[in-house]
Amino acid sequence: MLVPVGYLVPKLRPQLADRTLNMRQLEVWQQLRKEKARAAFFLCSSAGEYEQAKPLADRLIHRHEAFVLFIFISASGIRFAQSQQEKLPYLKAPWDQPLAWARLFRMLKPDLCFIVRYELWPGFLALARHWAPVYLIDAVQSASLTHSAGGRWLWRRLLTHVRHVFAVGPGDQVFYRETLGVSPGKISLVGDSKYDRVLERLGEREERRLSLRENLDAFLSGKRVIILGSAWPKDLEALLSVYPQMRQEDSDLRLIVAPHDVSASMAESMELALKAQGLSVCRSSVHGLAAASERDDALLVDQIGLLPELYACAHLAWIGGAMHFRVHNVLEPACRGIYVCFGPYYQTSQEAIWLVKEGLAQVIRDGASFRSWYRGLSWSAQPPHQPLWRAVQSQKGASDRILAAVLLGGV
After folding, report:
1. Do 160 and 232 belong to one domain?
2. How far is residue 263's CA from residue 120's CA, in Å, rounded to a whole number?
3. Which of 16, 128, 136, 308 has the fewest C-beta atoms lying within 10 Å of its C-beta?
4. Domains held by the chain: number
């Protein structure tokens, strides 16, 4: 009943569109499914959850010859898969109605269902549990459930349909046991598959990194590069409040800005803000990456899908979002072993909390605190932040532990 009303809200339209199953596409996938011994569904909210699911999906495909389907809740997840030129089957989740899920399950016959992080959908669970064991992976505690009695009641009911919960950390394990009532025998502590993905992607995308580096050689050569990744206006405003003075202290300093919102209006606004500081700006969507030269002070990359490789071109990353709302992906720069900082609103990110607790990332309150921290950094090592690089490496292995438990341990 609310869908027609939702279509009147421009921001909601992309989320509401294309929620019906494409039967012709399903018939093609049905033939592919018949060629495989087993099939696995991954229910993901968006791009972040897709990245967490990818290591498990790859292992199932290459080691166990499985058919894998990604089901995205968010339209942004679909856009991300398209930007990555993902060749595996993926679709936007249909409306959470048993009839739609039943059609999908009958045609593709999954043997395993993985829910990534939070996506406990009643309609999906009602059907999935009759077809295959359902596993919740990369499970973490939720602040909203801690403060919502109704939410806890609903999750307890939904979790009865989940065969096993794979928790990221000790606190998450306790949360699912004591707050959500999952029996201890149904919870395993395995870590976060996100670390596997970010480290394995380094090899997968090495050619992209080399190509990007070649295109930006004139801009990067001999320079010390700060990247403002997944940037919002408040992040850029804070950095620009001190960046001109930093340039006076180090004329070889260069800046890359990659907006989180790559719309034309956002890119134009950020370009004007950079130019207002007297900076010469190359905008990638207008001039192309290769046009950035030694004469440019800043590179504005308003194109999706390049950020992981851009981090590899920098010496320091300021990760956006945390000056006003919440921090974005901190592992993409961390796995490169470069210095990492972000604003004070980082508590929604388990990885950011861990980095701060271990003294491996810096919390920035304003431009002045960034400048003060920057002055004390050392650049003698390669990569510059060796302890951070080693710490990220130590976290890998969750994907193998999950699959060993599912396929060999019989959980």
Report:
1. no
2. 31
3. 16
4. 2
For 375, the token pair is 């002055």
Which of 364, 354, 386 has the alpha carbon at shortest distance from 194?
A: 354
Do residue 180 and residue 86 come from a single domain?
yes
Q: 320 with 276, same domain?
A: yes
- Tell me what pLDDT residue 11 has: 65
CA distance 270 to 231: 9
Paired residues of 340 in beta bridges? 317
Q: What is the pLDDT of residue 5?
A: 58
- Report the alpha-carbon distance of residue 342 to residue 323 in Å, rounded: 7
Please name the residue ranges forming H helices in 90-242. 98-108, 122-131, 143-146, 149-159, 170-174, 193-204, 206-215, 217-220, 233-240
Task: Say yes or no: 388 and 403 in one domain.
Answer: no
Q: pLDDT tens for residues 259-285?
A: 999 999 999 999 999 999 999 999 999
Task: Give Rg (Cα) of the chain.
Answer: 22
Structural domain including 343 reads 206-393
Decide: 231 and 258 in contact? Cβ < 8 Å.
yes
Angle of helix 193-204 relative to helix 386-393, nearest 10 degrees? Answer: 110
Q: Are residues 157 and 126 in the same domain?
A: yes
CATH of the domain at 385: 3.40.50.2000
Strand blocks (E) in 262-405 = 281-283, 298-300, 316-319, 339-342, 362-363
Joined together, the tokens standing for residue 404 give 């060993």
| pLDDT tens-digit map of 64-116 | 999 999 999 988 888 888 877 788 899 999 988 889 999 999 999 999 999 99
Q: Are 147 and 231 part of one and the same domain?
A: no
**CA distances to 34, 75, 98, 110, 391 from 29, in Å:** 9, 21, 20, 12, 40
Residues 37 and 8 in one domain: yes
Cβ proximity of 78 and 8 under 8 Å: no
Asked if 212 and 310 touch (Cβ cutoff 8 Å), the reply is yes
| pLDDT reported for residue 244 | 94
The torsion angles phi and psi of 342, rounded to 5 degrees, stand at -165, 170
CATH number at residue 22: 3.40.50.11720
Non-local (6+) Cβ contacts of 49 within 8 A are: 77, 116, 117, 119, 138
> pTM (2 decimals)?
0.86
- Does residue 16 carry a pLDDT above 80? no
